[in-house]
Amino acid sequence: SLYVSEYFSQSAQKLSFYSWYGNAKLFHFHVPEDTVLLRWLLQASRGKGPECTSMEITVHFRHGAPPVINPLGTRFPANATVRPSYNISITLSSAVQNTTFVNVTSPAAGDWFIAAHLPEAAGRIEVKGFSTPCPYMFQADMFVLRLTDMPVLEPGVPMPHTVVSSAKPLHVKVFVPKHAVGMRFQLSSCVTSERRACDVRVLLGSITLPQSFQRSLTCTGSINCSLALDSPPWEKWLQIMVESLGTANASVSLEMLASFTVCRPGSTSSFLNFISLNQNQAGARPGAAGSSAPAAGEAPGNASGQRSSCLQSQPVVREDLDVVSVRYRLLNGPSVPVSSLSPTLLLLNLNTGVDSGGSLVVNLLLNKTSVSLANASVVACVSAASPVLSLNATQNCSTAFSQGYPLSVSTSSGEATLIVLYPQTDDWFLSLQLLCPRGQGECSSAEAKVTVFAYLTPCFNDCGPYGQCSLLRRHGYLYAGCSCKAGWGGWSCTDDTKAQTMGTQNLATLLLTLSNLMFLPAIAVAVYRYYLVEASVYTYTMFFSTFYHACDQPGVAVMCIMDYDTLQYCDFLGSVVSIWVTILCMACLKKILKYVLFVLGTLLIAMSLQLDRRGVWNMMGPCLFALVIMVTAWVHHGAKRRHCYPSSWKRWVFYLLPGITLAFIAISVYAFMETNENYYYTHSIWHVLVACSVAFLLPPRDKHKKPWAWSQKLTCRYQICQNDREELYAVT
Predict the structure, then answer these.
(1) CA pair distance 282, 340, nearest whole angstrom
(2) What b/e string do you get for 72-105 counting C-beta neighbours within 10 Å, with b at 16 or more?
(3) Is the pLDDT of residue 298 over 80?
(4) What CATH number matches the domain at 312-457, 3.40.50, 2.60.120, 1.20.950, 1.10.287?
């Protein structure tokens, strides 16, 4: 046999601490057909700075869809089926880099996904630029060993083969036809080169993670052995590996036979129903009612003929609505007939390759008036790759190589819902059958009507009122995740273990909004001292900070007077400009120079905030530059007057030192104390401290101007001119 090795690589990604699914970094690979060995090369590394510590990286694997993970231990929504993902841990301790290999023998062909993340996020709000986080990088590479000429086992035809040695297993494949109910694999004429009874092991199927249902058959000391499988995967290649358990040099000769039991599905009149559907969508036309009458009249006749078939297939139309959004419509109407003689089958097509990033929702509603037996129930099973066709015999909802998801409705419980998170890429089937407690003979002539609603949605229930559904992308692959707020958690933001109460949400909103009213004293002081431009800036900041925080609340106590992004930008702009004009006002510059710096600085601040709104230097840069201007002006005034400026000790003790202290405390709270849990009161303290520091730091009014002098400018009258110069010198 000829083996070909192939190598696939993707660029490294920077890992994040986990708080929701968007923090997990996803890698998407495609394993080709006839792959006999898959090897993952996982490379993790961290930075070399002192901020880098030992870290544990969790890596999840899954075939067919992104892995469903729950690192935080939160609750999933009701009726959701969750199977834990296969994961490993990679530790970065003293070593800067770690390399790990993961081998998978006989992997399933198709899409494979890897998700990697760091431990749970600490919840601390870090100001961009104050600290340098340690970079943790992760890269996944894939090596595959593929067999180019894998022998094909034809159904019903015995085929002789030879296992050369125990180190070289034999690989063959067989194609499973559609509507296959069962498969039987037989091994006969098995002898070794030493003319002894063979000792071999047969593995049927491929390995899929997190769960693998690979079937094993061991033939020890027996010439003939066989294995029967129920519901093999339809229209797929099934790999069979035979390995020798005997001596290393002894070859094994054997004969393999694969046979299938194929069922005959009942007719569904899908073509006539499709014509009827198009006519109903186009509206009433002449002859439309007459043309649809034969289809309706043909249904009872077909039903009588279908009772001898093994299943009743109902035609389903797939309607693509949006990205990762699909609705399934039944051509015969939302209600389907379910009998006890044979299961009713619905095909839910999810094999496009772009459907695995959402949630599959199946809802069953029993029409209780249609069931004549009080104790009868309708058992359903949702499965991938192949349907479950023996619901009346075994109700465990399992196929040959997978485990389905069971559902049931009865007269006592007439509704059932199933949510499949990140369904794997495949054909999905919904099987329904009527069961009676005293045997199938009791309800042989009974029939139930079940209304079926099936759809694929990006996020179940749109993440609820306390979550936001986000569409994530990895290269060309799209998938969705829920970002929760107000303390809610879980896959669909349905876990209220740490949820904020309505009282807490209202308190947070009131604190963050009403704390901005502390700017009123600063505005009053500015107006009293005739600093009208500064008072206008403080009013602007107070207004937009109030309504930005009213719109930024995570709960339901939210009020947005305009677009959120606009409110955020205006709040950030007002905050930085307020600091800018306050420090320049303290510098006591000439009016024309001060106002030029006001306007020029505001324009530069607006530009820098547009480039990077959360950068620390957008606030620290204007502050430091304004402080340089203020210190230079104070040194100039002190040198000119030949004494310290400001000269009054009362100014320093009762105004400047308290104002500077409040400003430093505010900066410390803003930069080092804010977390997601205490944000609503630590940020409110920031509002109060900044507003109070502004009121203390504003310089006194001009000694030649009276208090509230701005009001005198509102009336038109004669005024006596006065000299506004600060210093008068007599020339002798």
Answers:
(1) 37
(2) eebbbbeebbeeebbbeebebeeeeebeeebebb
(3) no
(4) 2.60.120
User: What's the helix, strand, coil split of the chain in %, to 5?
Assistant: 30, 35, 35
Q: Does domain 502-697 have CATH number 1.10.3720?
A: no
Collect all residues with Cβ–Cβ distance below 8 Å to 454 and sequence separation of at least 6: 316, 327, 328, 346, 348, 360, 361, 362, 363, 430
The ranges assigned to domains in the chain are: 3-147, 159-262, 312-457, 502-697
pLDDT tens for each residue of 98-145: 999 999 999 999 999 999 999 988 777 777 666 778 899 999 999 999
Q: What is the dihedral of CA 640, 646, 649, 653, to 10 degrees?
A: -160
8 Å CB contact between 45 and 98: yes
What pLDDT shows up at residue 716? 55
- What is the Cα–Cα distance from 460 to 431, expressed in whole angstroms? 23
Alpha helices in 167-282 (DSSP H): 270-282
Stronger pLDDT, 16 or 614, i.e. the higher one: 16
Answer CATH for 159-262 from 3.40.50.880, 2.60.120.680, 2.120.10.30, 2.30.30.100: 2.60.120.680
**How far is 273 from 281, CA to CA, in rounded Å?**
12
Could you check whether the bond before residue 210 is cis, i.e. omega within 30 degrees of 0? Answer: yes
Q: Tens of pLDDT along 404-413? A: 999 999 888 8
pLDDT at 516 over 70: yes
What is 356-372 written as a DSSP string? TTSEEEEEEEEEGGG--
**Distance from C-alpha of 392 to C-alpha of 439, rounded to nearest angstrom:** 9
- Name the amino acid, one letter, at 171: H
Let me know if domain 3-147 sits in CATH 2.60.120.1440: no
- Do 3-147 and 159-262 fold alike per CATH? yes
* pLDDT of 727: 45
